[in-house]
Amino acid sequence: MLKYPAWLSLLLVLISHSSKGELSLELRHLWNKQALSTPSKELVTASGERIKLSRFAYLLSGPRLLAGRPGTNAGKWLQRADWFAYVDASRPGGLNRMELGSLLPDSYRTLQFSVGLNQAIDEADPSSYPATHALNPNYNNLHWTPQGGYIFVAVEGHLLDNGSTGGFAYHLGHPRNRVAISLPIDLDLTKPAVLEIDVHLDRIFGGEHPLRIGRNPSTHSREGDPVAKKLRQQLTTAFELRGIRQAQPAARTKPASKSSLVGTPYRFEIARGFPIPTLPTSPPLTNERVALGERLFNDPLLSSTNKQSCSSCHQTAHAFSDPRRFSEGATGSLGTRNSMPLFNLAWKESFFWDGSSPSLRELVLHPIQSAIEMHESLP
Asked: Over 60: is that where the pLDDT of 19 sits?
């Protein structure tokens, strides 16, 4: 595990008072030196097995740079302890680019980072991250439940054998399987630069004793698992610096609307052991939007008579349901069913008694416009 002096994490704050150099990482995925993206075409491993990859994704953390020209012993480490990246070979061309941010202009000779997370981050509450954060489980789909903790590397696919297929899944996790990567570089950071890194996925299956998928089709990183040990060893050989190019910083994608960035990210708390639900990301949940939703739920102005709200039938005292057999609408009409209780809806995939609505965002519009319920029209 990499250890850094505590004062280095404060260095980037001091850098903001001086001139800066923008640095990015660009990771390209390869198989036998050919560009790779997932899902892949048929591939042949070092053991001669034919496979197709359906997923190759992983988490990076803790990058640091050693200042000083190659051949010198003097130098200082610059660390980004708060930096994380989610990398996925399914992106176009298997290419992933991420910003390291503004660094002090200097000469750098070593780049180090980790594949995986330290124990504190691995055990932290995953619901605390914003919707598109690299460690948000809904964004990366790399979190184990119910035992908790992240999957650092996911390699999944199909083994092809005489026309039949069998799946394989290698999931590397737990801080003991965190892998340190160290790459020599010769970087003069006076202008925006991009470190071009090749990730040779075929090497993960290779080595002196190539991995035989047919014999070991899975690992979930249990302590002492020889497959996890093999993957950990081979990951250190997979990363290779291809080159360094001077470039303008990557264009930042503008949000679809200004409102999508307004507010405080909502902290969705769940009991440990519960699966992590898929929450909306466009626009993402915020404290302000959740508070507005609660007000609208209790607002009778959404009905044609200005007297009926959602909470009229979904009553808090009755598990957000109605003790009556049939609920009464805004104009006195009776429904044909009892109002459903409303709880744990974040884990559901269909709504209404007949499952006719695929999402909560669609569901809420139906009662407002129903002639039997709130009897209101929407623009």
From this structure: no
